[in-house]
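Continuing the series of single-chain predictions for the mutant panel. This is the parent chain; the variants come on the following pages.
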Amino acid sequence: MVVLTSLFLAFSAMVVGLLFMGIGRKVTARLQRRYGPPFWQSYIDVIKCFSRNSISHSYIQDLGSMMGLAGLIAAAMFVPIAGWLPFPSASPIIVILYLMPIGYLGMAMGVSASGNPLAAIGIGRALTLMLGYEVPYAILLLTFIASSNTSSLAVLSDLQTGGIGNWFAVKMPIGFIASIICLQAMLAEKPFDTMIAPAEIASGPMVELSGKFLGMAFLQHAVAIFIETGLIVNMYLGGGATVLSFVFKQFLLYTFAMAVNGIYGRYRVEQAVKFLWIFAGSLAVIQLLINIF
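Parent structure:
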């Protein structure tokens, strides 16, 4: 039974993430006065990728692609969905933040095996940006531990029951703003999409991916969207009374991120890290001090 529920959750994370990706492309297009592709285009793209021939440079690329997707799917297993978890676990945020980099490092290992210098530049930028948003996020986690004596997503979600007034987004608005900034970087959307930058490094990590490898990259990004928005929903927006309300809150967060993506330019990698440390980091520290004193 646990295996079936885990498979169902993994499949659901991919389906929901791909749906958000399709809607996000539509939102960006409308903001830029374009019609844009249909919202189901992401599903078509994945099907086409898996139906085409793939070029593998070595077994390291195969292993890295599988490791990247598996790491994020493992992290998704600890994200409560309307209070539901496939495992009888406390869903600690620390475990999720530990498993997520495994997915990103798997992608880094896979694309680095191609030897393409543009892929290496993209990976270097991605890992540098990760350092930028992980520091403020760690401070925000310390804030929850200091004020609630827990790092469990399930417990944090339960503490917010009773209405919007109990949401941590209302009780800790400064930390919520910092988390939204970090979310934009975690999603790799403008102004923090320096690791992709199609006009500069030809989409960076994805430049050498084809066929099933590109399809797995799409699925990896879809699961990452599900996890990253799910973290904010459980930490600040009260989780969800039902699965539908939980996904709707995720949708609002992702739509906002794509709206920002559609109107802002791109930071250089050093600008992005500096912005995250100075602004998001400062807001996180202020919220930590307020909660302690």
